[in-house]
Amino acid sequence: MVVSPPEMRNHETAAVFTRDRYVVLPKLLQDPTLSYVYSYACALAATPEVPLADNQIAGTPCVYGNPVMNGLLTKLLPDVERSCGLALFPTCSYFRAYKRGATLARHTDRPACEISITLCLGYGNHSPWPIWIEGPYGMSSVDLDRGDALLYRGIECPHWREAFEGDRQVQVFLHYVDQKGPLADWKFDKRPVLFSRNLAAAMSAR
């Protein structure tokens, strides 16, 4: 597993991403923004209005297109573009607050998730929960500490998580498409603007 430190996020990082189809970006998000977003996500996940399931994980608070997470989607776009060597359109954000016992089945993603970030916002009193990913050269288990991210081609690389033994881990997923690629029409997840919140339509498309 190749890890790219912040000062190396340039052509070298993009070359690793092109070769392996994924790369780890340590400290992509840092304090004070990181602590704020983590606290916000935990508070939001505890409210009764937040759905407790999607079509992948039951009993897990999850939110599509939250304005704060969409803010990260655009804030981190320049860093993501440098790291993958592509000009990108943002498509959507999504976050989950995982609980003990959660598992994520091996899967690939839908077209709007061509280039993706899974970013660890924080976790409880336990070690980071690994995410598994398979690229052209085999499988890797990736531990993401708070603020670390995995940049990956979600529609090409199968990824999954085994049973979660901790108490809480919050991840935000930031999704993009190549501006010059065949999936460019998924810009904004085919919504008129990025910050529209047609949750029902988006959830049915996942």
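The above is record 1. Record 2 follows with the same two-line structure.
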Amino acid sequence: MTITLAESTRQLALIVGEVFSGVATGGSATTLDDTACTDFPDDFWIGGTLWLTSGNNIGKTAVITDWDLTTNKRFTFATLTLLCAAADIYTVCHKNFSRQLLRNAINQALADMPRVTQLNSALTPVADQLEYDLPSGVSGVVRVTKGVTPNFTIHHNWSEYNGHLYLDPGKTFEATDTINLWYNPPYTALTADTGVIADLVPWERVKWGAVVYALRERYNKVGDSDTSVKNKLAEAMQQAEMARVKYPVKQLPRDPRYATY
């Protein structure tokens, strides 16, 4: 399942935060109106986060700079470029779990995950060539194979350095070989709404790991003055452990390098 940073933070907010979901009755590039949103006092949502889940700005988030209950039932935020309009579906979350906190929680959960081994078959072999530029996005190589899965052989005479793959003399490829690179890519933090969590990464495991981080951050601020946070944190830790067991991540270790004689 492909999930963006924007959607992942929204799903996280639905678990940890005080949220409201509604349908806009109007808007602009910097505002969204909802005449049905009447249960929250003036300025209540300031500093919180707005997610657009339909309409021109679907998949975008914004930090709320004003909530005007009295006059317009209006959220205000920095420009989204495109116009919000009636019938746009949205979600908002209170500032107790800010957009930055939610993003940090997702990224921390991802950083704690074992790297998911991925496969790249874009390397074009050249007979007797000893050095290759690794394909874009490939690093942390752990296995090099020749042939098509499952009928392949493992190549044990290579090393990786600074974006290049080096082969030992006498252990080169043939021009007709099919080369597969198995690699554990390093973690790269997601910063934009459109950033995507890799399909191979189990979302349930990331989600509950992020819930733990978000609630722990909140607990560090409020302590035992809000027992609900402490109770939610204890439950989230149990859910995170169950997800870790239920959704193991298979990571290939680096194959041994054979000596050349």
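The two ends are 47 Å apart (CA to CA).
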